[in-house]
Amino acid sequence: MPLFKTIEISENTTIFVWKITESLAFLKDINLSKKSLDRLLSMKSEAHQKGFLSIRHLLKHIHLSDKDLFYNNCGKPLLTNGKHISITHSFEFSAIAISNQIIGIDIEKNREKILVIKNRFTDEPQQDLSVGAYIQKLTFIWGAKESMFKIHPCGGMNFKKDLEIHQLNAFTGTGFINTPELELPCKFYFYPIENYSLALATKATGIVD
Q1: I want to staple 51 with a disulfide (CB 3.0 to 4.6 A). Which of 1, 39, 89, 165 is the partner?
Q2: What is the DSSP letter of 182?
Q3: In the CATH hierarchy, which fold is given to the domain comprising 3-203?
Q4: Residue 149 vs residues 35, 137, 145: alpha-carbon distances, Å
């Protein structure tokens, strides 16, 4: 299908979400650089290929092309126009965030598997939440930390110790990247999308245009 959802965070920060319902053949009908084509051919999973290609369709939707996207030595995506971009995809959905400042985005399917791995990234108790609500909350926490990870310039941090959650509300929160390379207060925005949880991280001071 075409663009599934557009979320305006501010005048100069926008999230674009794509629901992947197309065939692989349809998604392949887009211009790719040789480097991207080689990367696509190296992917063994069709789901991974669809996620990769749907991101290029999102770029096309906002009048950019695969050639406008490149990666630094740490694998962070960059745009030739100087704007910041963050990329994510999971199963049926992919999304990009475009901004004038550093951002990170993550989308995850709400799955019981997160109950098994939660101790790796949080001590958040279940309290009086139902299992479904607790899974979504944990998925938002994971998304917030993954988004902070994407903001960090080089990665390699401990999700539980170095990426802090200070406050968590229903659809917003605050946290802190606490590493030798970067110390940065962050603000989160959370969006439920069908059975998925989308998280965006920005500077805690708000969007700087």
Answers
A1: 89
A2: -
A3: Ribosomal Protein L22; Chain A (3.90.470)
A4: 25, 18, 6
**Sheet order of strands, 3-10 included:** 3-10, 13-19, 93-99, 84-90
Average pLDDT value for the chain? 93
What is the dihedral angle through the alpha carbons of 140, 187, 97, 82, rounded to the nearest 10 degrees?
A: -150
Give yes or no for residue 148 having a pLDDT over 50.
yes
DSSP, collapsed to helix, strand or coil, labels residue 44 as coil
The rounded Cα 178 to chain-centroid distance in angstroms is 20
Q: Which residues have a Cβ under 8 Å from the Cβ of 139 and sit 6 or more positions away? A: 108, 109, 110, 111, 114, 197
Give the dihedral of Cα atoms 148, 154, 160, 163; nearest 10 deg: -40
Give the model confidence (pLDDT) of 93-116 as tens digits. Answer: 999 999 999 999 999 999 999 999
171: three-class secondary structure by DSSP: coil
For helices 46-61 and 34-42, angle between their N-to-C axes, nearest 10 degrees: 150
Residue 96 in tokens = 């990009």
Angle at 86 between CA 200 and CA 198, to 5 degrees: 35
Residue with the larger pLDDT of the pair 2 and 82: 82
